[in-house]
Input
Amino acid sequence: MPYILKDIDKERKVPKYLGNILNLTASMLIREYGDYSPKPQFLHGIMFFDADNVKFKLKRIPSVRADVSTEAGMKARLITAASAAFAHLSQLPANHMRDWLSQDPFHRVGFEESDKLWEVLKTYRKKRNAEFDQGN
Output
């Protein structure tokens, strides 16, 4: 088994350096949509920056397709498709914002507890059906 798969990063729960490799690859692929400032240096095809304050400016907006799938229980699921690099890099700010907004109890319900009401209702339905089957 390769070394990269043996050594697991305890904090991140991914094979060692895999997260860094994914971030680097996505950061290079996203250049299709814009430019970094300052411009990166390249060594053997790998991007390096001489500055700490790196910014990315979009030249064109990545295309994103969206569709809605209906599910049982009057639920709907939003299905999106976008560039893998765009989807990967957008997860970091999205997760940070979700954690930050979830500190407010009003927002937490939407982010962390969205399925709990549905689960409670299904439990009540099963209980009601069991009581009905018993003749109560």
Observations:
- The chain has five helices and six strands.
- The helical segments are 3-6, 18-29, 84-101, 105-112, 116-133.
- Confidence is low (pLDDT under 50) at residues 1-6.
- Residues 65 and 103 are 31 Å apart (CA to CA).
